[in-house]
Fold each of these.
Amino acid sequence: MTRGERHAGAHPRPGSVTLAVGLRQSWRGLTSMRTALVLLFALALAAVPGSVLPQRPLNPFAVDRFLGEHSIAGPIYDRLGFFDTFAAPWFVGLYLLICVSLVGCLTPRIRLHARALAARPPRPPRSFARLPRTASVTTTLPPAEVAAAVRRRLRARRWRTETRVHDDGATSVSAEKGYARETGNLVFHLAILGVIAGVAVGALLGYEGRAIVVEGTGFTNTAVAYDELDPSRLGGAADLAPFSLVLDDFDADYTDGGQPTDFRADVRYAEGFDEPRRRTTLRVNHPLSVAGSRVYLLAHGYAPHIVVRDKDGRVVYDEVTPFLPQDGSFLSTGVIKVPDVSPGLPQIGVRAAFLPTVDLTRDGRLFSGFPDARAPAVSFEAFAGDLGLDAGLPQNVYELDTRGMVRTGGGFLLPGETSGPLAGGATMTFVGFREWANVQVARDPGQRIVLVSAVLALAGLMTSLRVRRRRIWARVIAGPGGTLVEVGGLPRRNVEAFASEFDRLVAELREHLPPAPREPAAPQPTADAVPVSDVRDSREAP
Amino acid sequence: MPVDQGLAELSDTLLLVAVLCYAVAMIGYAADWAFGRPLSLRPIAGGATDTLPASWTQTTGRLGAAHPRRGAAVGAAAVALTVLGWVVHAASLTTRGLAVERVPWGNMYEFSSAVCLAAVTGYLCLLYRQPVRHLGAIVMLPVIVYLGIAGTLLYAPASPLVPALNSYWLKIHVAAAAIATGIFMIGFTTTVLYLVQDARERRGRGGVNEQSRMPSVSSGGRMPSAASLDAVAYSLTAFAFPVWTFAVIAGAVWAEAAWGRYWGWDPKETWAFITWVLYAGYLHARPLPRWHGRRAAGVAVVAFVALMFCYFGVNLWISGLHSYAGV
Ligand code: HEM
């Protein structure tokens, strides 16, 4: 029987051909180590689409773009769930199957291992000659004392021992060590189950959302405040822990080459819906914990303050609008939509770019030379007509639909400057700018379970890979030239490392036992096969 | 944070010197292998090892001690050069770190250099405990290739870190990943060597007499037996796997602090996971009788390919949140 099968069919029972047998067999199949192997390969393979295709939870726009570009493969992938691989039914099914397999595989192993832990080290084999390591010592001490000395030596080295007196008058000491291997292995596999359980708890009870907060404004932890929210699956948006914060100031440091070195967001916050008073600084890698949630600084950008006036100088638009950075120079783009100019006049849309450090290329095009706002400017293109807001469809605030509009002009503004007429005599003023921070708010109640399980898994794994199971027997018998001690050792794997351990033990024994005048030659191990069945991990027994 | 250009240049020069040392050492190993007298494997552990059933000797790491032989001087010189290369290489990494006043594994170039240093360290540690000099040439080869790629395609001038990478956990995470990758790398090399030797033994040309399992002098007896190569490959992988596991955990801790979730199936994370699962598959496959040997080795090779993809493939072809991709 192969090792895996032996392991799987830990309790072979004769059974009639019934449904129960069929079920039991498929159960055994599911819990065999070979199946575990197949499941692992399947898991590795199943994760691949999730890494090479765009994923909805990470980047929904990229998925849409992919669908647009691949008219044949796209919909097929979509139906297969490849754009949300890790929530696809087949992926979830696979790891549930692994859970079932693990439970089925661990239950009998835990029982067997518990029994092995309670059992006494086995009787010595009839002949030591077939063991991979043997030695013998003769001494003048009486057998009982010798057996006690051997036992003490082994105990001191934390071997489990069992002393037996045999019919032929010999006393034997059986010793075994390395149970931690199986313990570690069981802890590892149980901890894997713990990790999966923790992930499930987080997926069901946790939430995560992102919001852009402009300097000088606040954020309240309610569903409407988010730009994007992935609420808890069981509790919904009602689960959001109440807290609020205000972004007082945002700062970024750069090297002279324009590489960022530090981001800081000074915030005030409070639990519940009190006035935010407590101050702290949010940084990348240093989240804020409040009301059981954590607040992270993810990204930042600029929000120009734009005012639009109609031909009579009446303010029709006065907002600080977050623009999205496009590259490392923080050239940022955004859109201004002015639906209500004056009765009878067309709506105005502006496509604009914010340049933190404006500069000119040789051929006269504008670009941003540095990410920090050293010489900010706004360049824009204005459109007049119908913004398409009345169609009732939700619009992307960062995109302008110009199908119902005509371009009326463009230009370039420094802070404080006002443009010429855009449409219908309206003008635009670039008042100044503020910075914004993109914060992520998350709560994951499964996180601690996952961390503790992962650490346990690691500890179990290291134990399981380092520790080896091994046995030593000593037979003590009175002989004509003194007391003869025969010692034999049987390691499970790694004979080499065991050999030195064994030799050390024997040398110690020699030191502690007064030698008899004549010592017979140590028996040489023969080249026959060693009885494999002598030491087995409990998972292979019986 | 200013960058000390002088130190940075010194670091680059030292790396070049290290690569040269390794290259010459590799030639030495190859010469040792080709012209030295065949190596004879001494039966070990009281003669019992070779008679044990395979499953009992799987982790018998010994390749057998070499008898004194001709050509040994070349081999010894190669080892000396490897040690010298290692010292220079370590100095290169250290000066890079001093030049930028941070840990020297902040971009792909530095990481690659650290991986190779881990690989050579692993090889030297192995050599200290066992006579594995025969592996020298083949261990040096991927190290030189890897360093070559690092120094040319991936080269990045010394510069400070972007804020997201400036974290305590990240340093631990990347260091563990570099060590694991380096050890997996020599494990992979040994596995490939095992597959080659196994094929030779099957064709009866491996230089190991089936009866005595002792090398025959006639042909290519310089190769250690397939079984012992397999054992070395296993012990390397079994060492690196928990380190990789730790690296993944440390990465998750960092991701939690930086992005607000410990795991997000970002491409880098996904491939780290795939690699982990495949190596777990290798550890699972080995004890199974039908998988022990070549099939399990095949799994290890696939796992290493996944590891390389996790590193080069993801950084260069798929971009994710890991701003590490700064080539
Ligand atoms: C998520 C799924 C699993 C993972 C990641 C996993 C991982 C591992 C790893 C890394 C080892 C090596 C540790 C060692 O050699 O001591 C191992 C060993 C083992 N696993 Fe799993 N395992 C999984 C599922 C299972 C299942 C379902 C079974 C049930 C049959 C199983 C049975 C075993 C056994 C018997 C060993 C001991 C092999 C040996 O030490 O010779 N594993 N597993």
Amino acid sequence: MLFSLAGPCTLAAFVSPPGPLLACLLALLVGCDTRQWRPTLPPAHLAYWRVAQPAARSVGCASVDAWVSKSGKAGLGLTVELRPREPACSPRLGGATLVVAGQRVSTVPVRTGAEHHYLPFLFDNDRAWRAGVRDAHVELLLDTGGPAITATIALHQLGLQPHDGVVGQEETQAGCARVDAEVLDLREGRVVLRLHLQSAQAGCRVRFAGISSERTARTGRLDVAPPTDRWYSLPTRWVLSFALEQAVSAKQPWGKEVLVATSDGKTHPVAVGVSRPFYFRLGSP
Amino acid sequence: MRAGAALPWLLVGTACIHFDRDSGAPGLADVARPPDAPGLRLVEPAQRPGETLVLLTPGVFLLGGARGLGHDLRGMGTYGAELSLEWGTRADNHDDDGELPRRGWRPDVVLPDRGWGLTLAGHFFDGPEVGPISLELRRRLSDLSLIGLGPSYQPTNHQAGALASAQWGPFLLRAGYAREGGFVGAGLDLFYPMAWVRTR
């Protein structure tokens, strides 16, 4: 924010003659430090739960892994991946309990895939954070064919920014649909986008029809995408994950065209781009 | 030291700082709904919960314009000082040097994007007269724009009146009226907000 540095600017103005008022005004108008200025915002630094140590382990005939998928004031959501290590093994997740601040929060696992379960733990995490609660653990009740086994996953809550990616475009129109993009993850070698598709006309339906540009080192490889043969009623959300071979930066943004087929028989290319914000700061490297 | 000479140093000493009343907070996330891509190892970014702020803002202003409207119109140059107390909110959350805020004082300013406040101002005209003194109710429309309206009092002739302001960043437009005439001026308002910030 241009005027966020009135204090330091004023100090500079008063200690550097001549014309303190003129210098101060100039400093304000130029902006000594505009680090708060950025065209679009990446996710904020907020408090998030994370798995404290690598959660992957072998339990009976199965392998278990877990990661925090959601974290907020209303609680946390843990995804558990349960894979058989032997052909005859069919592991099951019988239940899960979160132990946080001396409180036990139980949940019913939601199956979200062949090997994935989602565990929503609803509790007053805002109060917990403000009370200084930083550690918790989840007890998973696993059935791998023998006696029930309890696996414990340690969690830690800390301040972090999930990623610093920003989308490069505003909401766009694709026939009868409106498409807005959101960066879910941006790290070395991967960018994950979530497209929010909303109806601009009654009865509009959409289908993911692929991506238009050829794969290059810059555009990457599509790893995760909706099926191309399924029609979606609106509103809906699509998640697309790309494996990248080059890093995304402010100077080297990443872009792709997503093809959206609409129920009127047309296919619309929707440009999506991801960048990292450019911080303009005088006097810093 | 004369009071006038001390004023800049007083302002600099208290200028443009904020106090974080907490160490951030969790954001807004729909935890009950499963993630859209359950197989991807990532935490979905939470929505910004925003912030609430209380601000104490001293400021100095310079105005040029006309006074004596309706009676004896003449040019005007004035300067003055003001003090505002404001309560506001931000939809965004600030960070401190790329980290979660830590409880304590920081040297950067944080401004609300909506808010209400009271501003007490004194004008010192270029002549022997002093005044008016005004108390405005101010409405912040964005982080940089404010409008205000309130009563004024001219101590030299005991005239009561009204005064209105509009401000964008350091640019100030102000008009006042009392029974013996009014004034209108435009100029600069340099403000030095001290904010107490709490994550919502």
